[in-house]
Specification:
The chain is mainly alpha-helical. The protein has two domains: about 80 residues, no CATH class; about 210 residues, MetI-like fold (Orthogonal Bundle), CATH 1.10.3720. Helix 6 packs across helix 9 and helix 15 runs antiparallel to helix 16. The longest helix is centred in the middle third of the chain and has 36 residues. It is globular.
Length: about 325
């Protein structure tokens, strides 16, 4: 198992290198540092002197790959590639274009994102699995038919409708919780209830249909017919065999949302005024702060790869045969 996990972790190295190289090309080759300065300054007729001053203040005045004017190791280290890209591998995010410490902002903003994403994931997973098993249990009945219709209807509604509708109904008409905002400590709970509820409800349609498909596929397998032939009740067959053997695709579905646990949701955090990483990224895009955007892109890639490694570990626990591949 250790060899299997080590092999999977080694696969992550070329992926991260590729992501870093791609972001470097997009931010510094396709979009030159002069273009970044003009966009950030926001002046149509900005003069070259102002561009050079901005580049010097933010460390963009260095050569891209090789500094021919330097000596020794500074030929490589005193470049944009080394100072702006390679430092990301040791999570040295540097400073944003407005002078803030990006690493400090990430450490502060990750907790509001986690406060929303973790309960939404856990509650949503429990609700979707329950509804999926329920519909599979009553397959080929009216409960199955109307359950699928209900799921399709939920999937057909835009996520913005759930947010706006939930804010109007629960936050304004019923006035149960605040519409938006955030606080620290226990006071944060009243601001998290509404986005968590909306996040769970908006995912019921797609999640339930996904798990229903998994369970129906498992129900048609030979081992399920054998279990029934031995006299096991349908309830035992579903929970002891169908659910257990459906863990591989279930784990695969969960890993897709793992990066959002830290990265947050751009739309949800912006609409609810949550100071998480999602709104942090969106604010950086709006303000054209390329240092933050570049850091968040790399961090998202790292988190996704970590999620894949954790998924591989979970695979080996759910099905030991996988570690032999």
């Amino acid at each position: 198992m250790i060899a299997y996990i080590t092999r999977r972790m080694l696969y992550a190295i070329p992926i991260l290198l590729g992501v870093n190289l791609l972001t470097f090309v997009l931010f510094f080759v396709v979009n030159s540092t002069d273009d970044m300065a003009r966009l950030h300054l926001g002046v149509k007729r900005v003069n070259p002197e102002a561009v050079e001053v901005w580049k010097q203040e933010h460390g963009y005045d260095k050569p891209l790959l090789i500094n021919a004017k330097a000596e020794g190791l500074e030929v490589v280290t005193d470049t944009i590639l080394f100072t702006k890209s390679l430092g990301l591998f040791v999570f040295d995010f540097g400073r944003s274009d407005n002078g803030r410490d990006i690493g400090y902002d990430i450490r502060q903003r990750m907790w509001p994102s986690l406060a929303i994403a973790v309960p939404t994931l856990l509650v949503g997973l429990l609700v979707n699995l329950t509804f999926g098993l329920l519909i599979a249990f009553f397959r080929h009945t009216y409960i199955d038919l109307w359950g699928v219709i209900f799921c399709v209807a939920l999937m057909s509604v835009s996520g913005l409708f759930y947010i706006v509708g939930g804010q109007y109904l629960i936050g304004k008409l019923l006035a149960v919780v605040p519409i938006s905002g955030y606080d620290t400590g226990v006071n944060a709970l009243k601001f998290l209830v509404l986005p968590v509820i909306i996040g769970v409800i908006s995912g019921i349609g797609a999640g339930t249909r996904w798990y229903r498909t998994i369970f129906l596929e498992e129900i048609g397998r030979d081992f399920v017919r054998t279990a029934r032939a031995k006299g096991l009740t349908e309830r035992l067959v579903l929970f002891r065999h169908v659910l257990a053997n459906g863990m591989i695709p279930i784990i695969t579905g969960v890993v897709v949302v793992l990066p959002t646990l830290f990265m947050g949701s751009l739309i949800t955090e912006s609409f609810f005024g949550i100071p998480g990483l999602g709104s942090y990224t969106l604010d950086a895009i709006n303000s054209q702060d390329f240092a933050i955007v570049r850091s968040m892109v790399f961090l998202g890639a790292v988190l996704y790869i970590v999620g894949l490694v954790l998924t591989d570990i979970a695979y080996t626990i759910a099905d030991p045969r996988i570690r032999l591949n």
